[in-house]
Amino acid sequence: MLTTTSVKLHLGAAGYCTHPEFLTLRGGSLRPVAFPAGFACIIHPVHGPILLDTGYSSRFFKETAHLPNALYRHITPVVYREEDSAVHFLARLGLKASDIRYIILSHFHGDHIAGVRDFPQAQLIYLPRAYDAVRSLGPISAVKAGFLSGLLPEDFDARSLPVTMQAERWMRAGEDFPFSKVCDIFGDGSLLGVDVSGHAEGMMGILLSTESHDYFLCADAVWSSRAFQEQRRPHALAGIIMSDRLTYRRNFDRLVQLHQQFPAIRIVPSHCREALNAWGTGAEEV
Ligand SMILES: [Zn+2]
């Protein structure tokens, strides 16, 4: 087992957007491909159900009804039905929104935080650098950074639980783990936050273990499993939306290395349809 305390994991997606494949995968086609807005419900033995991100929600459409935010929707057309929401997904697991005490935010792009307001009781866990990078942006810069401030609740600061990364050498079966900045989120070895910046400043992935498998939920460090399996970086054009291309490349290479060193770890990019179909529920309709 990769971690010291096992959890249960349910992978889902709330809506999807479409992009031409070549943007996200070098050598890909011009045809539009659906990218599910993935999220995870992690059942912790002590803290109960926890969300990692939320996918889209109807709030996203309210927030992008007018310019300049409407640009976001034009650039990434979104398909979403109310029954796709994280709240509905949880209901199918027998859970209520009020059961969620924590939401981990991998980063602050709209397709990851759009459902946060649906969970008024949850405390919000994230890397301070991720929020600092977007909190003071003006309206145009915020849209360019994929951030819609209206998606966050008014009491966001009061409910925030920022976490910090420690630079540490982390070994597994005698081999160095390729990512060096790790954070034990609850201090019990169950959920390990990993700095995977580059796509967005302060982006955090999560390492966890269920009773049967190890997982690395790597947020948007890659858009699809094929990217690290076939070592295909996104098109240079996709660099426009990245916070730091050099860091993106470094973390991309680390992900490739992780996959080669530890092929049994199930790497789950937020927007990978294959990974969601293989190991999750709720993405099959996409
Ligand atoms: Zn993103």
UniProtKB/TrEMBL annotation:
UniProt catalytic activity: 3',5'-cyclic CMP + H2O = CMP + H(+); 3',5'-cyclic UMP + H2O = UMP + H(+)
Cofactors required: Zn(2+)
Ranges where the Metallo-beta-lactamase domain occurs: 37-271
Molecular-function GO terms, alphabetical: hydrolase activity; metal ion binding
Domain of life: Bacteria
Record carries keyword Cytoplasm: no
SMART domains: Lactamase_B (SM00849)
Keyword Zinc in annotation: yes
Keywords: Hydrolase, Metal-binding, Zinc
InterPro entries given in the database record: MBL_superfamily_lactonases, Metallo-B-lactamas, RibonucZ/Hydroxyglut_hydro
SUPFAM superfamilies: Metallo-hydrolase/oxidoreductase
CDD domains documented for this protein: metallo-hydrolase-like_MBL-fold
Function: Counteracts the endogenous Pycsar antiviral defense system. Phosphodiesterase that enables metal-dependent hydrolysis of host cyclic nucleotide Pycsar defense signals such as cCMP and cUMP.
Family label: Belongs to the metallo-beta-lactamase superfamily.
PANTHER family listed in its UniProt record: 102 KBASES UNSTABLE REGION: FROM 1 TO 119443, QUORUM-QUENCHING LACTONASE YTNP-RELATED-RELATED
The name this protein goes by in its record: Metal-dependent hydrolase, beta-lactamase superfamily II
